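Whiteboard transcription, Tuesday session. T.W. wrote the structure tokens on the left side:
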């Protein structure tokens, strides 16, 4: 995978996310307690790099410019989640968790949608495009909630109302993904590129 100025944005998102977790764990932030951040500091970077590495494996040797903008969209929800815990926004703002599930899934599936549907021609069937993006988002929302169930319920932390919270989070995540599907469809049908700020050579995807 070739490095370019466009890579600065996703790389910056990754670095800031890791630094926030390192600082929070080192200082011993109370807002990190019981949230599985010892595991997250390993899992989050792996998840953030999974999509770029998968893209690179598929396109290796083809000389194609990586879609840095889409990568940044996929990575940003992890930064938002860590920042929310770093600033203790989950406890200070009642609606923060719900807002996160809606917005983060929108950003995540916007990025994934641009990768799955890389051209105008790939969205020839609009309904299928939106349904695919929404469906992937729903699946990822379920997998995420399974992970939270393991961390919180198994550890005996935040178990009150966990089931109701899980259902709500899955609905919000799916709604965010559906919105992302509509955005992907609209941008691809207009042929609009996703450009990384400050990089005029940023690719279409």
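and on the right, the sequence the group agreed on:
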């Amino acid at each position: 995978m070739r490095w370019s100025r466009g890579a600065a944005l996703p790389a910056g998102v990754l670095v800031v996310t890791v630094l926030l977790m390192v600082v929070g764990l080192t200082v011993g932030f109370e807002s990190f307690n019981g949230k599985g951040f010892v595991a997250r500091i390993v899992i989050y970077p792996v998840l953030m790099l999974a999509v770029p590495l998968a893209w690179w494996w598929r396109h290796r040797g083809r000389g194609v410019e990586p879609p840095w903008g889409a990568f940044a969209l996929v990575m940003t929800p992890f930064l938002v989640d860590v920042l929310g815990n770093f600033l203790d926004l989950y406890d200070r703002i009642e609606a923060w968790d719900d807002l996160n599930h809606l917005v983060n899934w929108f950003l995540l599936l916007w990025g994934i949608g641009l990768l799955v549907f890389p051209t105008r021609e790939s969205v020839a069937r609009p309904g299928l495009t939106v349904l695919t993006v929404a469906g992937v988002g729903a699946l990822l929302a379920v997998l995420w909630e399974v992970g939270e169930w393991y961390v919180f319920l198994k550890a005996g932390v935040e178990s009150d109302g966990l089931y109701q919270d899980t259902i709500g989070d899955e609905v919000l995540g799916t709604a965010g993904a559906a919105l992302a599907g509509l955005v992907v469809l609209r941008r691809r049908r207009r042929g609009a590129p996703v450009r990384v700020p400050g990089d005029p050579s940023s690719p279409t995807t």
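Someone added at the bottom: The two ends are 15 Å apart (CA to CA).
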